[in-house]
Amino acid sequence: MAKFDSSVPSIARIYDYVLGGKDNYPADRAQAEQALAHNPLIPVMARENRQFLSRAVGWVARQGIDQFIDIGCGLPTEPNTHESARAVRPGVMVAYVDNDPVVIGHLNALVAKGNPGIGVLAGDLREPARVLDGVADTTDLARPVGLILGSLLHFISPDEARDLVARYAAALAVGSYLVVSAARMDSSGADGGYGEYSRNVTAVYNHSAADFTRFLGPLELVPPGIVDARRWHPALGEPAAPPPRDAYMLAAVARVAGKDPLDHLEPA
Prior knowledge:
The protein has 268 residues and is an alpha/beta fold. It has helices at 11-18, 26-38, 42-62, 81-86, 101-112, 128-134, 158-170, 189-200, 209-216; strands spanning 67-71, 93-98, 118-122, 146-149, 177-185, 220-221, 227-228, 247-255. It has 9 helices and 8 strands. β1 (67-71), α4 (81-86) and β2 form a beta-alpha-beta unit. α1 (11-18) crosses α2.
């Protein structure tokens, strides 16, 4: 893993800043403000992504899943994956994976404070074999698992994203679920904002719903399919059909197909 350098902006710390967090540095804040100049909705999208992930994790837990792998999890932000899952199924095991040293430090502190059933791995999405081997202490891949790729695939090219999702899915037991989200901009402003972020932080790709369909390949999409994150099982009191915007989070939950002993649980 790369040595920590606070002068280099970090995806996780930029995300922390737009969510109103304090675990970020001047370089992160400067880059975030440049991105906000192109897309002022970024903080709104970040919150909507967190809300989607919480709803999706709770839904997956209700299907009987009691172990999760959260890749590219970022800095701990309430509700964390283990909190959303354990609100439904106490005792759920969660493996958090990230390649940012600051994130790993915060996650290790979380575990040290007395949070059993949580694993922490310094790892990168692009190394599926290493990641899956590294979470063995908290995850039994012979049983169904919930794999989370939240706000992550827009940092991966279309061909590589399709390959990575396929490699992870192939390693999961039948009845497992993938929770996936990525930023999407339909306006011409995407070129400026994404281009600047790509130059200063890391490459960003403006994936479409059609791209997502290819990423998820033969997996079974959970209704309502690939949608604006606000439309995926909206919370009580939230509109089922929010007004359209040209900047939003694409979101989906998909199942590794096949008959398994969890089929009697809550239907999609």
